[in-house]
Structure formats: C-alpha cells, structure tokens
Design goal:
Order of helices and strands: EHEHEEEHEEEEH
CATH architecture: 3-Layer(aba) Sandwich
Bound molecules: inosinic acid
Number of domains: 1
Oligomer: single chain
Number of helices: 4
Number of strands: 9
CATH class: Alpha Beta
Strand order of the largest sheet: 4-3-2-5-6-7
Strand content: 25-35%
Distance between the termini: 29 Å
Mean pLDDT: 93
Radius of gyration: 16 Å
CATH topology: Rossmann fold
Low-confidence stretches: none
Largest sheet: 6 strands, mixed
Shape: globular
Length: 185
C-alpha cells in the first residue's frame, strides 16, 4: 500500500467486480440501442476505460474536460469547460460517467448543460457517491459505491493531481493535507 494512504476503502478486486455488474445492467437497459459514453476528465478516465470494455453495446466514447473554480477540495458546482464534446449528442442515448459525486453540484450542472442539447436520453453513472454531502437533488442512475463523507483518492481520483494511478480507492493520511496546508497557507 502507498505510504500516504491511511486505509483502503475499496480494493481493486471489488471495483472490478462492481464494474461488471454495472455494465451488465447498462447493457440490459439499452439492449438493441447505441450509447454515447461521456467520460468526465480527468477523474473518470480509468473507470470509463474499464466500464466501456464490459458493456456489450455499440458504444461511442466522448470526453469532456472540466475544471472547478476555486478551492480544490470544496466544490462550488461552477465548472469551466476546458474541452467540450467532439460530436453532437442530439437524438442519442447519453451516459455521463463520473468518478465521484460529492455535493452533486458538478454533475447537476453537466446534466443540465447536456440536456439542452436534446439527447434521446440522459443518464448518470458514477463510480462513487457520498450521499451525506449532497447539496442538491441528484438522480444517479448507476452508482458503484456509496462512501462516507471522507476525501478519497485512487482509481482516477486525485489530491492535487496525484494518486490517480493507485489501483484501489483509499483515504489519505491527515498529515498529507496538513503538510500541504502548512506550506500553502
Ligand atoms: P461535487 O460537485 O461536489 O459533486 O464534486 C465532484 C467532483 O469533485 C468530482 O468529480 C471530483 O473531481 C471532486 N471530488 C469530490 N470528492 C472527492 C474525493 O473524495 N476525492 C477526490 N475528488 C473528489
């Protein structure tokens, strides 16, 4: 285990198993139809890569890169689109693939933005969800894991852009934040 991690919340084996179940459900729900997966960068890149390979449908992959305004660990829900979709989603089945839903503000903003582009259907799939942190009503159609309200890293999730490459999801040691806050005010 990485020495900056205090404990592992979800092992890689558990993540893989849950992704298979989610993909099976998605395949069943969209049987006989095409699906556009919108992977929200950067956090969802590993999840989307594993998920799409388990989905047995004609799939198009699109990427949207966003960045939050302000403090890295507190969401305002106001996001800046750094990279928009390459193709129109009008009349298509669209699945937003997110890494984690915390306040829910980011995914709500994205869903309302994409729904204005007249997709046939729009659903949300998130690897993790922190239900106790929601600040808005979000309907998550496919959810991997419900987590307590702790900051987690790994499997695409980052702290200051590090730890995305950990194969599991874990909690960072408190001293890592303290050290960062001490040197950055
Ligand atoms: P929300 O708008 O509060 O739902 O925040 C969603 C975004 O904040 C996610 O897509 C992540 O990029 C980031 N985020 C929220 N919680 C965590 C966490 O525990 N670890 C890493 N990133 C997080």
């Amino acid at each position: 285990m990485n020495s900056d991690i205090s404990r592992i919340l979800i092992s890689n084996d558990l993540i893989k198993e849950r992704i298979k179940q989610l993909a099976e459900q998605i395949t069943k729900d969209f049987l006989g139809q095409e699906l556009v997966i919108v992977c929200i960068l950067k956090g969802a890149f590993i999840f989307a890569a594993d998920l799409c390979r388990e989905i047995n449908l004609p799939v198009n992959l699109e990427f949207m890169s966003i960045s939050s305004y302000g403090n890295a660990t507190v969401s305002s829900g106001v996001v800046r689109i750094i990279k928009d979709l390459n193709e129109s989603i009008e009349g298509k089945n669209v699945l937003i693939v997110e890494d984690i839903i915390d306040t829910g503000l980011t995914v709500s903003y994205l869903a309302s933005l994409l729904s204005q582009r007249a997709p046939k259907s729009l659903k949300i799939c998130s690897l993790c969800n922190k239900p106790q942190c929601h600040k808005t009503l979000v309907k998550i159609d496919y959810c991997g894991f419900e987590l307590p309200s702790e900051f987690v890293v790994g499997y695409g999730l980052d702290f200051r852009d590090f730890y995305r490459n950990l194969p599991y999801i874990g909690v960072l040691k408190a001293e890592i934040y303290t050290r960062y806050l001490d040197s950055n005010g």
